[in-house]
Structure prediction request, 219 residues.
Amino acid sequence: MSMKIYNAQLSPYSARVRLAVYAKGLDAEIIDAFSTPELEAEFEKLGPLQKVPLLVMDGKVMPESEVICEYFEDLGLGPSLRPEGAENLARMRLLSRIGDLYVMEPMTKLFNQINPKGRDQALVDRELGELAKGIKALAFYLDGSPYAIGGQMTLADCTLAPMLFFYEQIGPMFGAADPFMDVPMLGAYYRGLKNDPHVTRVIVELDAALRKVMSAKPV
Ligand SMILES: N[C@@H](CCC(=O)N[C@@H](CS)C(=O)NCC(=O)O)C(=O)O
Prediction:
């Protein structure tokens, strides 16, 4: 089996797939898709979406982080990252869906507004409100377990760990002293999750990538 993942170190979606790869112990070649013009040209030929992560496995090309993670599960690669039972599976997918739609969407818009110069304050206020709603929804569907669903990592944790890394960074950039103040259970979940060695690895990678970008482009 040959597995290549076109990746960007700072992408939360790529980080979701990296976390699944690490937790499953898969032998994947992880390639920074945008690191050279040659790689970028190679990546552009692989499909119309032009987004990382992108999986190329035994000649098959698969985009979209959640689809890639579910594909690993369907193939039965490594330890399962799906919980037992239809309700737990539904809650796992719900948490990922809330993360993608109601947390990442406003957070991406806010990341484009980090520089106070030329900031659209009305947009910032609106998206901070949307982000707070998304974050409260995540907290609502957690149950206080060490992982999102019970005592073992699932795909919900693969989605949420990178998102919460960015959430923790972005709050203070817009003046929130403690981004988890209104959602203490979510804060406790994220702090606990960071003790998992695979999560630690991904958080360290995200932190290094973020520092590199921030030092290259001072805001
Ligand atoms: N829904 C996609 C989102 C992927 C995505 O937005 N990736 C960004 C990086 S975070 C990207 O590749 N951006 C490059 C571009 O849009 O040109 C997923 O879950 O994989």
